[in-house]
Amino acid sequence: MDRRIRRLGIGLVVLFTLLFAQLSYVQVFAADDIKAQPANARRQIIAEYRVERGPILSADGVVLAQSVRNEERRSELLFRRVYPDGPLYAGLTGYYSRIYGRAELEQAANPFLSGDAPELAVSTFTDLILGRQRKGGAVFTTIRSDLQEAAALALGDLPGAVVAIEPETGDVLALVANPSYDPNSISSGTDEDINAAWESISTDPSQPLISRAKDELYLPGSTGKLITASAALENGVDPVTDQWPNPRVLDLPQTTNTLENFGGSLCNGGSQTVSMAAAFQESCNVTFAEIGLDLGAKEMSEQARAYGFCATDPPEQVECEEPTIPFLLPWANGRFPVPSYFADRQPQLAFSAIGLDNVLTNPLHMALIAAAIANDGVMMRPRLITEVRDPTGRIVREFEPEQYGQPISDASAKEMRAMMLSVTQGGTASSAFSGFPIAVAGKTGTATNGENRPPNAWFTAFAPAEPGNEARIAVAVIVLDGGNLGNEATGGQVSAPIARQVIDAYL
Amino acid sequence: MSEVAFPTSAADTPRRPVTGLWLLIVAIAISLAAYAMAGLGLKGRTPRDFVVYGLVFTGAFVGGWLVVRWTAPRADPVLYPTATVLAGLGIAMLYRIMVARGESTVAREQAMWLLVGLAAFCLTLWFVRDDRQLNAYTYTLGLIGVVLLLLPVVPGIGREINGARLWAQVGPFSFQPAEFGKIFIVVFLAAYLTDKQELLAAGSGRFGMPRAKDLGPLLLAWGASLAVLFLERDMGASLLFFGVFVVMLWIASGRAAYLWLGLVMFAAGAWFGYLAFDHVQARVDTWLHALDPDKVTGLGYFQLAQGWFAMATGGIVGTGLGQGSPTLIPYVGSDFIFAAFGEELGMIGAVALLLLYLILIARGLRVAMERQDTFGKLLATGLTTILALQTFAIVAGVTRLIPLTGVPLPLVSYGGSSRVATFIMLALLIRVSSGPMERSRG
Questions:
Q1: Cβ atoms B61, B21 nearer than 8 A
Q2: Under a CB-based contact definition with an 8 Å cutoff, are residues A152 and A88 in contact?
Q3: Which end of chain A has the least Cβ crowding within 10 Å, N or C?
Q4: Residue B349 CA to chain centroid, in angstroms?
Q5: Residue B139, CA distances (Å) to B89, B153, B233, B236 in order
Q6: DSSP letter string over B340-353?
Q7: d(Cα A147, Cα A506) in Å, to the nearest integer?
Q8: Does residue A363 have a cis bond before it (omega within 30 degrees)?
Q9: Could you list the pLDDT tens digit for every one of the 507 residues in chain A?
């Protein structure tokens, strides 16, 4: 009888072994497939909202996004996401919606915020063992909240964007774009509220989900002369002694088209010839078209490439699969055509030399260019996160400043700085900076914006800009569709004062 | 029979009480830690009534242990602490589930049932001073068992809940009589088979098969199981009764043929049940197609799918007690409590829970082997087999290894009847392991 009881025992152990096998199938081997079933969506969401998602903080400790306990006691979602100053930082934080997913930092830094990143494994495992509320990591950004506020105030309600960067590190100090949206409205609330908010934001004709600071591309106009001037300096042009003919109207090769200075004016008081430095200060189109044609397509294209512009071959728009300049958030970096595009399109080369035709950029890229010039020619990658801390405050990950490249030499950078300084001292931006105690190096731009639309006004600058002084901030401003001046708008009148306020707030 | 000297080899070597006490302390510690962690995970603080609960739980189980020490001093030292930790984990999980649902009174009710179960455990040990006294009332006990089994069918008393007729209502009390009926039936079978052992073992027909007239009891049990399936629509009980009967018949007779015959009859019964009863067909269909996109929202399918989702979410280490979403599973407190463990304690926790049951099973069978008399052996084997098959049936059902049969997970699931009945079975097992209570003390 005992033998049979023992056999019974063996039989029962076999039965339980089947259970162990089935458990390992359900919980380990097939677990990912099972969890991914559409019928499981609700549990996935609830699980995600059970974690106290880490906050997103500015460099000066202001909370840009955080998770707070859901006040609704009967809700199965334990936490909800709050953006204390939603629209101001929407382009940086993005949103965290259980229905519409994540965007910007909420998406890019998700593994840190949710606690899934391997760096946070120790912390989340401790939470598990102690049965504590699981918490994600805190993400510290480079954004300066005071500067972000000042930039938003300076831009006001005008459509456009302001980007400020620290030249030495590439730290993004401020990134403001209009129009914006309130991420709170699509991140928390009832399903009906979220759907309604999403409907209104996503169908808004002004497209607030697209950041004017980094997602859209615009003609740089005269700010594109930074590229042309850099190419000239790199190719041995002396900004003062080398002279170009100074006609009122430039006849373009291969066509009967002509090119004029802004408003059809004469450059340098109508002198016979003009230097690059003088032409830069007044932003003479004719001179820079001549410089671009003299340099040739290859040199122009190469300089643009060195500044991180991605190569396109219009009219087939070659999409850059990845942005040429790596950035944590998705963005569209500038574009400049390949040399072959200009082979039988010399007029286009002339227009490209003054930032038109198929040259495209945005404020983030322009700010990086100004920062590179300010940083002795060394271009840094834009940095948005400095560190991630676990819930106990321990730093689990640090992000060092990274160099992107050196688009121009130290010597060229000095020449550029001198020319840009002249823009605010007697040049196109002098009225905006009259009486400003800090030396600012800048470049204005007024870019046509399609038929029957007021121009886009640009200004990009850095400060302090006295020779030998280390620049601490680089700024790019765009105001779309003429801002409050309509067809009369210029970069110097509309955008330069905004840059001045931003620089004033920081220094 | 009572004149026979107590027939166990362990009688002369009293077990060391100290081992049992240590195990009990560990069991209580784990139970209370689980309760505290459920509160921490759920609300970020220990449950408000933690101290009271801790004192009552500790007091009750230490009290129970003292009763065991007093009434059954030679008892197996592992059985009681193992049951303690299972019961403690069960209450912790029920607390966690019911609080999440806003029905914390239900958890308190189940804790009360645990105390009732413990009282029934002590009373059983007190009244059944020698398991062999049960042998004297073979047919009376058998009759009580059958009556209890069929009570839910009686008009006026029986109640149907969720499509199964398992409940009896007497006055304000409703309970599942089959939970108690199975104890009587196991005792009856042990006594009956002890009587008929030699008859069943001796003599064989052609091809080594039992003679036709010896098949009577087997056919009777088969018919009874099908009757339960038909009248009460209770697949779990039906399977359990037939299973334990076949196992005990085989153990008693020593004839493997009964086992094989039993399996064939089980297969035939299952096939017949599938063809004849739509509730059986429904169980099989939900089992096979739980995750079909066009069926997954149907109630039975949804429950099985959610159970799988819960366990898959738990993965290896689990979400942590109080930090999963087991309440998404319909009836998670009763049928699907195992899935809640799988989600929140992970595969590690689920396997640990099953290992606790394996410990109970191993100790139960050891008790059977240590006894020298047939009745004690059969009783211990039968009680253990019921526990084992019940655990297997519900866990295999929840994990979709077999179609779901709604039997409770012993000591853990929601359910007063099951909790009390399992404690009575445990008391009997401990009585069998210890032998008769000494007269001088009784």
A1: no
A2: yes
A3: C
A4: 20
A5: 38, 22, 26, 25
A6: HHHHHHHHHHHHHH
A7: 6
A8: no
A9: 889 999 999 999 999 999 999 999 999 999 988 888 878 877 878 878 878 899 999 999 999 999 988 877 666 788 889 999 999 999 999 999 888 888 999 999 999 998 888 888 888 788 777 767 788 899 999 999 999 999 999 999 999 999 999 999 999 999 999 999 999 999 888 888 888 999 999 899 999 999 999 999 999 999 999 999 999 999 999 999 999 999 988 888 888 788 888 877 888 888 899 999 999 999 999 999 999 999 999 999 999 999 999 988 887 766 677 889 999 999 998 999 999 999 888 899 999 999 988 899 999 999 999 999 999 999 999 999 999 998 888 999 999 999 999 999 999 999 999 999 999 998 898 889 988 999 999 999 998 877 788 999 999 999 899 888 899 999 999 999 988 888 888 888 899 999 999 999 998
From chain B, pick out residues whose CB is under 8 angstroms from the CB of A52.
Answer: none
Neighbours of B365 (CB within 10 A): 22
Query: In this structure, are residues B312 and A34 in contact, taking their beta carbons and an 8 Å threshold?
Result: yes
Query: What type of residue sits at position B320?
Result: G
Q: Residues A458-472, buried b or exposed e (16+ Cβ, 10 A)? A: bbbbbbbbeeeeebb
DSSP-derived letter for residue B439 is T
Per the listing, tokens 């190096």 go with A441
Min Cα separation A50/chain B (Å): 7
DSSP B8: B
What's the rounded Cα separation, in Å, for the pair B237 and B242?
9
Contact yes or no for A354/A361 (Cβ under 8 A): no
Global confidence as pTM? 0.68
Query: Which residue does chain A place closest to B360, by CA atoms?
Result: A9
What is the nearest CA distance from B322 to chain A, expressed in angstroms?
8
Alpha-helical segments (H) within B254-328: 256-276, 278-288, 299-314
